[in-house]
Amino acid sequence: MNTQPTHTQIHYLSTPFLHSHTKLLFISQKLESAKVTISSKKLCYGVHSQRTNRLSYWAIVSRRSRIRSSVSEAEAYKEQNQEVVRRAYPFHEIEPKWQRYWEDNRTFRTPDEIDTSKPKFYVLDMFPYPSGAGLHVGHPLGYTATDIIARLKRMQGYNVLHPMGWDAFGLPAEQYAIETGTHPKITTLRNIDRFRTQLKSLGFSYDWDREISTTDPEYYKWTQWIFLQLLKRGLAYQAEVPVNWCPALGTVLANEEVVDGVSERGGHPVIRKPMRQWMLKITAYADRLLEDLDDLDWPESIKEMQRNWIGRSEGAEMDFFVLDGDGQETDKKITVYTTRPDTIFGATYLVVAPEHFLLSSLVSVVQSKSVEEYKEVASRKSDLERTELQKEKTGVFSGSYARNPANGEAIPIWIADYVLGSYGTGAIMAVPAHDTRDYEFASKYDFPIHWVVKPNDESFSDPAKAYSDKGTTMNSSNLTSGLDINGLQSKEAASKVIKWAEQTGKGKKKVNYKLRDWLFARQRYWGEPIPVIFLEDTCESIPVLETELPLTLPGLDDFTPTGTGEPPLSKAVSWVKTTDPLSGKPASRETSTMPQWAGSCWYYLRYMDPKNSKELVDKTKEMYWSPVDIYVGGAEHAVLHLLYSRFWHKVLYDIGVVSTKEPFKCVINQGIILGEVQYTACKDSDGNYVSASSADVFGELRQEIIPEEKVIKSGDSFVLKDDPSIRVVAHAHKMSKSRGNVVNPDDVVSEYGADSLRLYEMFMGPFRDTKTWNTSGIEGVHRFLGRTWRLIVGPPLPNGTFKDGTVVTDEEPTSDQLRALHKCKAKVTDEIEGTRFNTGISAMMEFLNAAYKWDKQPRSIIEAFVLLLSPYAPHIAEELWFRLGHSKSLAYEPFPKANPAYLKESTVVLPVQVNGKTRGTIQVQDGCSEDDAFELASRDEKLYKYFEGKTIKKRIYVRGKILNVILGPQNAKVGVR
């Protein structure tokens, strides 16, 4: 194939509705002789390949407005009027050319059979959900980082697994399908095609031969197989549990899909109601999920979030018997879980959750209406809302009492939503003196507060707040119950209470978890069918035979919610009705589907062996590739996705499918890219600009977004350029279509090239930090790439094109050139491996600045630099490598290694002190003698005045560190000792 750049032509931009025919003719006649002008501030339009269509004025405005909202039509008009313009380098030809080369040659394919004697490196992105909106510039941040790492590891001699696929089942696709009347399969495939095209346009080195989609029956066959293994081991079961039910969406939602009592998708009201659901017994693995966190190379904040989500605690279950109307104990008892049994004498009331199973039998006739109203309100709140510490505590009296087993007191039973039916026993003993939430509740409803623990150091003396720490027990003895823990430390007192409870039958020791079993069913169409049938005569559940997998999703024209709670699959009557293959009895299929989490729990394993039709993954391949070495994704998946994946992995480990206890060795969370800063000015009722702080004076103000060019910075604030007395508000928001601040990477690539986008996203700041997009910032890295191109290829020809080949020479490099190169080698390698990509780019920029000062560019130096650049900017690097005379891709060339001998500085900046006070510095050779150092200092223009006419009493010299000259009286000659 012809790998040379196509010839470029310079042409004007046709805008016949803005220019007269005379002026257009004049411009066209002058094109041949027009001089080329260069804009150092903006990449200009005009240099295009012969294949490129001319852009109209409005095309420019449209493209620019999508990239930088502050570019006005006037600027685009000015840009359009430039008669002859050109690009910094021909990325528009280079990038498609090398993307085709990589695809045609399958450059990044990881063979099925590999040399396992070589080290492996498995680098993985959290695979995306292919929405109809496509990518925005925030998405490639993590993908670019993993690609840089993957390219480095290939060049370092590793077998690299770097795959990509699609998490394509789920609620958003189905909702979009319902809204548009398009089948979710059609929209999903269309969205996948768009995402794939966008990712390929950015030059990511994915092995596309391993591409997977959770919607592919050959993939979800094994998702269903894993479910059957869970079912066999009692880890999948059905139970009636309180769930988040969204009538509008017609499905159960997970807690994280409910925000402020409404669905995250669509903002529909959500209620709590009991439903029979499939559950996965993740709680059986709670201890292992907790303990194995210690050995993982994960951010400590992420591990702590998982620890808190699992929420292991040690305490006791205590029984409080319910009293009848005469104050006598009945056979009904409320079992509470407490982590502080040492405070039992301070329990002055009980609280049960609104969904507690005994509630109906506890409520008196008088209180029944109030309780029902309270339950209705509580059912519309998510668990997160109910347990929010800052929220005001609310509750209602049940009308019943129970007896405190420790002191025999009758205490009221209340219902409050800050207690969850899903945690512990769904009931607590309230000790307001020693629990903040209980104290707030007791203060509001005027309950007694009994202090039963005092601080050991007497530091706590505020009666207006609860003391929740441990200390010495007091007021904690009762002869009738036989329990006396007065004067004991909290830990010892708790142990004694538990022992007493077990001996008297009033309670027992208990380990508890906040972690709940995983609700594993959705009343939706677009998901993996659950491979279970139910016999019609007995309703017994029967697993589908493994040989019949995959159980495929039936085609369904009407996949809207039924409105009755029955899943949409119930409409596929011919699919639902079946027979038990073993008994021949009539049966019905399960019509709920798996949640979107299912397919994403194990996809990293399928990448190891994506075409295997006989088993989930070949054991030899799994043993070689496991675990994932680096897993990169957003912190929003820190708990649930990672926890669910770890749970499934441990089950697969127990049954011998995988060889490691954990799936992901190292997890890295990239930061968020916010949209460009928006500037908002305020206007009063007369349309005059006023500062936002003037609302009290002018009343209600109207806000108006203004372009960046109308704003200047003044101190820590931003003000109007035309009237600096008017302050404006500057704020960056997360990118979203609703805010109109989404930047499409396609537009950036079209104007600046994929390499510039990749480089800019890595240069914005530390990889893990939140950053703000600024389109003008991309111009800096684009200029860096243009300078790199001109350094190696040479300046442009008069017609704006570049000559073939390069300007490098075959001369031996100088020692300064070698030092500059090896310093760059060391820095770039270290910074990639430490995911400090921005400082790696800085090192290459420093090298380029140094290289521009050289008279000659030795081949050995330049080739090494191109290899260093290639993980970051692979397209331009490949083209430069080819122009340097190489016929193959550089993807597997050895990555340059730094020679330590060149990293040691040959010169040292030596501080010079006079009588102990630093007066300047001199530059000396490493290993310079004291006499030579003093000679240089005494001749230095700035230091000479301190020595002139003074006696040198003493010199203190620490080689490479400092020279301190102690001076005597005046009128003595300066000289060496």
TrEMBL record:
EC assignment: the record states 6.1.1.4
The secretion signal range is none
Question: What residues does the Aminoacyl-tRNA synthetase class Ia domain cover?
Answer: 731-762
**Recorded catalytic activity of this chain's protein:** tRNA(Leu) + L-leucine + ATP = L-leucyl-tRNA(Leu) + AMP + diphosphate
- Enumerate the InterPro entries for this protein: aa-tRNA-synth_I_CS, aa-tRNA-synth_Ia, Leu-tRNA-ligase, Leu_tRNA-synth_edit, M/V/L/I-tRNA-synth_anticd-bd, Methionyl/Leucyl_tRNA_Synth, Rossmann-like_a/b/a_fold, tRNAsynth_Ia_anticodon-bd
Q: Which residues form the Leucyl-tRNA synthetase editing domain?
A: 307-501
For this record, an example GO cellular component is: cytosol
User: Which Gene3D superfamilies does the protein's record reference?
Assistant: HUPs (3.40.50.620), Isoleucyl-tRNA Synthetase, Domain 1 (1.10.730.10)
Identify the keywords attached in UniProt to this record, alphabetized. Aminoacyl-tRNA synthetase, ATP-binding, Ligase, Nucleotide-binding, Protein biosynthesis
What are the BP-aspect GO terms?
leucyl-tRNA aminoacylation; post-embryonic development; reproductive structure development
What is this enzyme's class at the first EC digit?
Answer: ligase
Q: Where is the Methionyl/Leucyl tRNA synthetase domain?
A: 126-258
Looking up SUPFAM superfamilies in the UniProt record yields: Anticodon-binding domain of a subclass of class I aminoacyl-tRNA synthetases, Nucleotidylyl transferase, ValRS/IleRS/LeuRS editing domain
Q: Which GO terms describe its molecular function?
A: aminoacyl-tRNA deacylase activity; ATP binding; leucine-tRNA ligase activity
Ranges for domain Methionyl/Valyl/Leucyl/Isoleucyl-tRNA synthetase anticodon-binding come to 818-925
Highest taxon above the source species: Eukaryota
What protein family does this chain belong to? Belongs to the class-I aminoacyl-tRNA synthetase family.
Q: Give the protein name, as stated in the record.
A: leucine--tRNA ligase
**Whose protein is this, by species?**
Tripterygium wilfordii (Thunder God vine)
